Amino acid sequence: MIRAVAGRHNESIKLAAKLQSKKHRRERGLFVAEGLDLLAAALAAGEFPVEVLVRQDLLDRLPPELQAEAAGDELGIGVCSAETLAYASSLGGAADVVSIFESDEWALADLDLAARTNVYLFGLGDPGNVGTLVRSAVAFGVTGLLCSPGTADPFSPKALRAGMGAQFHARIVTDVSAADVASKLTADLGRGEEPPMIILADPRGDTRAAGLLDTIAPGDDGRSLSGVLLVLGSERGRLPELTGIVKHVSIPQTGLESLNVAMAGTILLYELTHERRSHADPGRSVGPAREG
After folding, report:
1. Is 116 left (phi over 0), alpha (psi -120 to 50) or beta?
2. Closest by Cα among 84, 56, 69 to 1
3. Fewest CB atoms within 10 Å of the CB: 131, 204, 275, 291?
């Protein structure tokens, strides 16, 4: 159903405004994605919104499948003035579309730590860094991400914009403590699964990022590498204490003490995934990155 929405006191506008807050996102099981580009990214990933608020001059630019859903009363589309839509968005007057989505409820048990590469974001407070790392992970084929308590919400509007909608392609589990990870690893080991290599991004680490797989595969006990857990912490924060096959990995650099965590994480993800593909297919090359 397509309807006119007038004023900041409309229930849909108030809901979208409340979903700017992490507390309300958690309570409602919903989040907002702001912009036509994020809406398109969601649809490309097979994710449909539960409601869409659009500026009145942009109604015709909504994807045809959404307009068809609305015509069949399967989706609510609210048509707003720029002033009204500004109340529902962190972008204020720059908002064009605000879409409301249901949150996916992934659990730690849904991630295969033993056989795949996963990323653990530990104490990263900047939502821009978190969103960028989700984008980098998905770009390199890594879709399992764990976020510790204290890590910025990957589904906040700022993180979603930084991620360019990569969140729609990932299995993201939030509020995962180091103790939770340790328990998962112990349980997996009890089922006979091989433990992953744990890579701690550490500017003082004794293992260099370049040629990473040559360094850690096969493992210290002679086994070939299967699962990898890449752990990225805040620049001044501590890293989690995890036991097992652990490598403290640094990125050589000149003139600075350390890189921004999003940059460092992207480099390490490239090293892990590119070298892994090269080991499997020596003739394979990686194409240029897209700007944006």
Report:
1. beta
2. 69
3. 291
CB atoms within 10 A of CB 281: 9
Q: Is the peptide bond before 157 cis (omega within 30 degrees of 0)?
A: no
For 62, phi and psi rounded to 5 degrees?
A: -65, 145
* Six token digits for residue 117: 């590469």
User: Exposure string (b/e) for 134-158, b if CB count within 10 Å is 16 or more?
Assistant: bbbbbbbebbbbbbbeebbbbbbbb
Alpha carbons 187 and 184: distance in angstroms, whole number: 5
CB 166, CB 38: distance < 8 Å: no
Domains in the chain, CATH or no CATH each = 2-102 (3.30.1330.30), 108-280 (3.40.1280.10)
pLDDT per position as a tens digit, 107-154: 999 999 998 999 999 999 999 999 999 999 999 999 999 999 999 999
Task: For residue 270, give Cα distances in angstroms to 56, 141, 211, 221, 286.
Answer: 42, 10, 11, 25, 10
φ, ψ (nearest 5 deg) of residue 83: -65, -40
Q: Closest Cα to residue 122, out of 194, 186, 198?
A: 198
Tokens of 179: 């103790």
Residue 154 tokens read as: 């990957």
Strand 97-102's sheet: what is its strand order? 2-4, 76-80, 51-55, 97-102, 30-34
Chain segment 8-49, per-residue pLDDT in tens? 899 999 999 999 999 999 999 999 999 999 999 999 999 999
